[in-house]
Amino acid sequence: MASRELIANRKHAPHHLGRVLVLGLGKSGRAAVAYLLPLLDGRVEALAVAAGARSAASEEFAAEARAAGALVAFGDEAVGVLAAEAGGAFDLCIASPGISQFSAFYEAAAAVSAEVISEVEFAWRESAADSRWVAVTGTNGKTTACALAAHVLAGAGLAAAAVGNIGDPCIEAVAAGRTDVYVAEVSSYQLASTARFAPNVAVLLNITPDHLHWHRSFEAYRDAKLKLLANLPGVPGAVAVLDATNDVVRAEVRRLRALDAGERGFSYVPLGTAAGLTGDMRAACGSDNAAFLDADGTLRVALKGAEHAAARVEELQIKGEHNASNALAVAAAALALGVHESDVAEGLRTFAPLEHRIEPCGSVAGVRCYNDSKATNVDATLKALAAFPEARPVVLLGGDDKGTDLAPLVEAAHAHAGAVVCFGDAGERFAAAFEAADAQAPAGFAAARAAHLADAFDAALALASAGDVVLLSPACASFDEFCSFEERGAAFKTLVADAASALGA
């Protein structure tokens, strides 16, 4: 049985964890097992691993775990087998984020476990009591925001590290013991299985429809994201940074605004308004705190009675209004942790674009090419389209179709792009959407169809001229042709490099 007595210098770590089940052997599952194995015959009475589907990598890891004393089983019936071997129910289950709460696998684990939590929750509980956590979630932008935050904080001299969906698994970083500020990218999957997780700074970027196959409804997806704020009242000095340009997040800002400070229990910083990022909106939002762009494009944060100026938008290396929003959110988070505004500004200026996120990847005969393969939904592509006000790019759209409404994408492409090339399994539906709206297209706009990414790139180059931009921003998953958006982005960069080499450009 698990003990209720807690270790004094941890967030919420029992002296005795009891019987522990790890559900899934993905990246976070393996990290949890590696952390727990040395605790066998001490804090951990029994360690069981329900490994799911077999693979060469999981088989190898499972053999090592068995040799170290863990119980391991594969397949759909793994949980039942392990419960019988372990002597009954489990005190704690740590679930991998890829396993839906509605799956039979998860439900089987929940039925035999006193508590089911995510790896990020477990890591937070095990982390040092005086460590600080910045947790970032949102449908889009969280990886860039996390990387940027870690860059700013490290540049200011803090022992900060990006963890979670970016960098090392949270529990691996906690085990290493080299981090004082954990900057955690947390997904809706991870947040859905949290109970006590309470960051010092919570950053909620945006909430738009995504991952509905996992959550089954937009409401469940939204509620999972909002769990990020649930435990902030228990954290002294906690701050929430909320992107009020997003309709769903703005509704949460309104809810918080209606509460008095005592009811709310934490400070919040609204970022922008429905009209966008520009303009001091403190009066409109009814808040002394705010993050916004002033008239000359300076990032400004008003926080706890002081006003701070960070970098100017034109000084940022990351493109687009969405990245200005990311920079504002990070500035507010860093200032909330006590970082000086000059260090914040320097960190924002020196941060380079991440791979696969409007990443410049070379030129072909004067045509500049950008890899935005991470844009796996329509909302992300809308932001990328708006990031090139000086050009009307030729945009590559398509891949594994998520079945989302294409009307906003067609409208944005007409407003910002010179042409689109629709490819992959989604290509036919995307092309049909543009064909149906042909009467609304601006003069000279072209919509082409291609079978695969390579064909689409060739078609895009044929539509572009020197000085133009070709942008891969697919608005789709990659699984029709590639194993991941990273593989798709790498393939695109290879196509660019090969075409440039062939032309001697």
What's the layout of helices and strands?
Blueprint: E1 18-23, H1 27-36, E2 44-50, H2 56-67, E3 71-73, H3 78-86, E4 92-95, H4 104-111, E5 116-118, H5 119-126, E6 132-137, H6 142-155, E7 160-164, H7 170-176, E8 181-185, H8 188-192, E9 201-204, H9 212-215, H10 218-226, E10 239-243, H11 247-257, H12 261-264, E11 267-271, H13 282-285, E12 290-293, E13 298-303, E14 306-312, H14 321-336, H15 341-350, E15 359-364, E16 367-371, H16 378-385, E17 394-398, H17 407-416, E18 419-423, H18 427-436, E19 446-449, H19 453-463, E20 469-472, H20 485-503
Parallel strand pairs: 1-2, 1-4, 2-3, 4-5, 6-8, 6-9, 7-8, 9-10, 10-11, 16-20, 17-18, 17-20, 18-19
Antiparallel strand pairs: 12-13, 13-14, 15-16
Give a verbal description of the structure:
The model has no long low-confidence stretch (mean pLDDT 93). The radius of gyration is 24 Å and the shape is globular. The protein has 20 helices and 20 strands. The protein has helices at residues 27-36, 56-67, 78-86, 104-111, 119-126, 142-155, 170-176, 188-192, 212-215, 218-226, 247-257, 261-264, 282-285, 321-336, 341-350, 378-385, 407-416, 427-436, 453-463, 485-503, and strands spanning 18-23, 44-50, 71-73, 92-95, 116-118, 132-137, 160-164, 181-185, 201-204, 239-243, 267-271, 290-293, 298-303, 306-312, 359-364, 367-371, 394-398, 419-423, 446-449, 469-472. Helix 5 (119-126) packs parallel to helix 7 and helix 6 crosses helix 15 (341-350). 37% of the residues lie in helices and 20% in strands. The strands form four sheets. Strands 7-8-6-9-10-11 form a six-stranded parallel sheet, with helices on both faces.
